[in-house]
Each structure stands twice: as C-alpha cells, then as structure tokens.
Amino acid sequence: MVLSKTSSESDVSVHSTFASRYVRASLPRFKMPENSIPKEAAYQIINDELMLDGNPRLNLASFVTTWMETECDKLMMAAINKNYVDMDEYPVTTELQNRCVNIIAHLFNAPLGDSEAAVGVGTVGSSEAIMLAGLAFKRKWQNKRKAEGKPYDKPNIVTGANVQVCWEKFARYFEVELKEVKLRDGYYVMDPEKAVEMVDENTICIAAILGSTLNGEFEDVKLLNDILLEKNKQTGWDTPIHVDAASGGFIAPFLYPELEWDFRLPLVKSINVSGHKYGLVYAGIGWVVWRNKEDLPEELIFHINYLGADQPTFTLNFSKGSSQVIAQYYQLIRLGYEGYRNVMENCQENAMVLKEGLEKTGRFNIISKDNGVPLVAFSLKDNSYHDEFEVSDMLRRFGWIVPAYTMPPDAQHVTVLRVVIREDFSRTLAERLVLDITKVLHELDTLPGRVNATMSVTKEEKKKNGTILKKSPIETQREITDAWKKFVMANKTNGVC
Predict the structure, then answer these.
(1) How far is CA 159 from CA 154, 173, 205, 382, 477, in A?
(2) Is this structure's pTM higher than 0.70?
(3) Which helix (H) or strand (E) holds 122?
(4) Which of 284, 352, 354, 383 could hold 324 in an S-S bridge, CB 3.0 to 4.6 Å?
C-alpha cells in the first residue's frame, strides 16, 4: 500500500516525448483517461517513467532476490496467468508447493516419519507467514485457557526491539500485547535471559530472530530454548518459541549446519522463511512450517469447494500467482544442497571483502558479526561533522542505494549504514563500493558540517550552579542523530509500506 498525496495542481498530467506521435494531449495522472491510446504509447509512457527507478542490482538496502537464471524466468512467465488458489485446476502446481513445504521442513529438521507429510503453507512473504504463525499460537493459547476456565483476553508476545515491523503489525492487527526486550550498546539482538524474564501466563510465544534486519546477527535460540524450558518446568507453563528465519533460514543449514536453532529444539513449534530472500526467488514468496499437526489448530483451516473440489486453505489472502512457487521449486532442485552452500559461501566471502575494505579506510566501526546473514553494518567512528545519513545520500550519485538508520531503543543513538550481500553482488562490486565510499568520505572532508547549528552541541556548555558542564559523547551523538532524523523526515518523499 502506498501512503501518499497527489502531486501539485501543475503536475496532474503525464507527458511522453516518444509517445507524442500517438498521443497529442497529456494523459491525466490520477484519473482514468476518457479514451484509449495505442499499446505502443502506453508502453513507452510507462517505460519512460520506470527509467527513473533505481537499479535493483545496486539496491544494497534490500534482502530480496534481484537476479534469477533465464530458464527460471521462462518458467515464471509461462505460469504468470495461473491462479495458485485453483488447486483443482492446477494440481501439479499444488504438488510443487507441497514438495517445497516438505523439503523446507526436512531442511529445518522437522521430526517427520518416513511417509509423514510436513505441515506448512506458501505465503506471499514472511510477513503473511508470521501473521499465520502468530494466529496459530494465539488460538492454541486461547483454547487452553478456555479449557482451564481462565481469562483469555490479554495475550502477549515477547520479542526483541530489533524485530521487523511485521511483528508490530501482527500485535496491533490481532490485538496481542507486544513486549519488547530493549537493546543496548554493543548488543543489538534480543537477550534470551531478559526475554524469558518477561514471559508470564499470558505469553503465547517468544519470537526469536535468525538474522536480524539491523545487523544480520543470529539470536541464540538454543540458549533461549534451554532457559525457557527451565522456566516452563518451574511454572507449569508450556510457552513455545517461534523462529523468524526470514533471512537466515536459507543460510544457517548450509553455512552453520551444526547450529541448533530449528526443530531440533523441543520448544520451537513453527518457523517462517522468505523464499524471496536467500531462498533465491524474486519477491512474492514466503513459507511457514509447523513442528507437527497439533501446533496448527484445525479451526483456523478453511475448506472451500466452489473452485471444483474440497480444498483446505490457511492464508490471509486468497488469489495469488503461481510463478514464485514454481520458481522456488526450480531453485531447490536446480541448486540442491551443494548449490545453496556454494552461493551462501560466496556471499559470505564477498561480505568479508567489503568488511576488510571498510576497515582499511580507518573511518568505520563494524557493527555486524562475521557469523550470520552475509551483510556488513557499519558506522562512522567520528560523525561530529558529517554523519551516516550524508554518506548514504551522496552514494546515490554513484548509483548505490545504501540505507542509513538508527537502532531501536535503547540503542537509538547509534546510526548505522548497511550493505546486504546477495548472490548477484560480486567481489568486483564490493571493491568498487569501497572505492566510491572512500571518494564520498574525501569529498565530505572538504565540506563544512551540513547542520552547523546542530554541530554546535559538540561544544555546547551549560551553566549550572556556577559550574561549566560539557555534554557526554553519548548525549552529543544522540542530539546530532535526532536533529538529522528531523531534517531527513522533513525532506522525505512518499513512503511505501
């Protein structure tokens, strides 16, 4: 959904140079035109505007796949007119989805028998997958509370403050209290001990993140499981764990096969993963799998027959394309375990090349960890004159899209730049990015501070009881970050959610 307002009154028409041979008058921008136009003109008008979009390959903010093989592109285009929900009409597509669910469940070490089918579903992304998993936890908790004759109107969920916004959406949309473990300097993921301390009898689950959006770090799911097991034993509760493996689910099995984070841990009841991230499929596919059938309440599954046969469905939306499901199956059988491992190892090696190049500049602190999602999160050692937002802004002149952002509470005074390393980000591009960042730094060094009025806080002194007090470095950095955030938001264009 785009949250926007229309352009100014002087900009209400669409113009196109090349299309003018077909269209002599401007097209209305926000209303449907009265008359048809030639297909060539429509194509040219839209194509001209799209040229102003960024280059997806250079969009280093996104975890989402931006390149696939030509053969897979052909399969996707051939299935673009298939509605996935018509299972009776497209039984083979349904079979491919079921194969994907089972492959992923086995990859996550689900306790399945030789002929036992996995429990899971394809979604439009991890956001929908998380909504479904959260609903399952909420309903199962409510059913248990009802059976015990206890109140069931105040469910809560425990997460770290570093969770992706979809968890906040789940909590708000489905009326679940969100209890967040705050971050702290140098520790930018959920602390398992503090998370378990927040658990009470109304907690439907703890959500652990395998691959934080902020710095790529894996949370310690094994430690969380062990501490929570002990608390459950002491209290008689059975609080479970959901693992949000949107980014790390297709990384950990190949780079860190000995790491225990999945269904090998008894309290992990469901896992979501984004096929369109390191599952290596274009945007529009996610997966959620449950440990067993008992973890997905039957009353959440709908059965419909108006498409030709009885069909079970557990999704938030109904119609969706089949192309991404087919593409996911292509990648799973095309690459196999060996291929995925090679891709992830290559991404990790390129991340190390970028990290080492940034360290050699002597200007950055590395915030990300070597183990985790292949990305590099870094901040300026000295941002008293120019900060990370300016670096991000100036890199766009070279075509790079590198996000700058502040950490969540209680580390919001820390500002970070982040580069996500995807399959199509080569070593050559990593080296080029370091060169361009170095150019940006040199240029910024020649410029005065962009917000001089704000920078004065580095020298600000306060008189109190006749004593001159200087602000601490942390206080100074927080004020600079807040001022810059206000500046950026004031000049920000329409956002997309």
Answers:
(1) 16, 16, 9, 32, 27
(2) yes
(3) strand 119-123
(4) 284
